[in-house]
Amino acid sequence: MVTEDDVRRIALALPETGEKTMYGTPAFYVRGKWFARMGEDGDLLVLPVASEEEKAGLLAAEPATFCTTPHYDGYAVVLVRLGAVDAEELGELLADAWRLRAPKRLAADYDG
Fold first, then answer.
1. Planar angle of CA 4, 10, 11, nearest 5 degrees
2. Backbone angles phi and psi of 84, in degrees to 5
3. Average pLDDT, whole number, for the chain?
4. InterPro entries, from UniProt (predicted)?
5. What is the pLDDT of residue 106?
6. What is the mean pLDDT of residues 56-83?
7. How crowded is residue 100: how many other Cβ atoms within 10 Å of its Cβ?
8. Is 74 left (phi over 0), alpha (psi -120 to 50) or beta?
9. What is the largest CA-CA distance in the chain?
10. How many CB atoms lie within 10 A of CB 2?
11. Contact assessment for residue 46 and residue 39, using Cβ atoms and an 8 Å cutoff
12. Structural domains in the chain plus CATH codes
C-alpha cells in the first residue's frame, strides 16, 4: 500500500515535474501538463492513459487496482486504488503517465 506522500515523492523525482492544486487536490505536472492527481478522498490516484481502449483493458484485467466513475466516461483516464499497489508499481504507473504528457525529447532523454 502506498500513500499520498509516496505519490508526491515518486512523481516529483521525475524530470521537470512540479506540484499544483487541481480541483482542490495535489496534482503533478510536467511542463504545464498534468499527469497525475490525487482523488478527493485521498485513496485514489487519477492518471491519464494512452487511450480509452487501454483504460478498458486495465479495468477488465485488474478491477481490484483500477476503477473509474461516470465523471471519467469518455476520457482516457483511470483511477488507481492506492491500497492495491506497491511503490514499484506506483513508480511504473506514474512514469507511464508522465511519458504521455512530457515533451517527446524530454521523455526520450529520460528513457536514455
1. 85
2. -105, 0
3. 97
4. YjbR-like_sf, YjbR/MT2646/Rv2570-like
5. 98
6. 98
7. 16
8. left
9. 38
10. 20
11. yes
12. 4-106 (3.90.1150.30)
**Per-residue pLDDT tens for 28-41?**
999 999 999 999 98
The pLDDT value given to residue 41: 87
Q: Cell numbers at residue 109, please?
A: 532523454
> Predicted confidence band at 27 (pLDDT cuts at 50, 70, 90)?
very high
d(CA 112, CA 110): 5
Cell of 92: 511504473
Q: Where does 1-112 show beta strands of DSSP type E? A: 17-22, 25-30, 33-38, 44-48, 66-67, 77-81
In the sheet with 25-30, reading across from the earlier edge strand, the strands are 17-22, 25-30, 33-38, 44-48, 77-81, 66-67
User: Model-level pTM greater than 0.90?
Assistant: yes
**Cell representation of residue 41:** 478522498
**Is 77:68 a contact under the CB 8 Å cutoff?**
yes
Nearest one of 84, 79, 89, 87 to 36, comparing CA atoms: 79
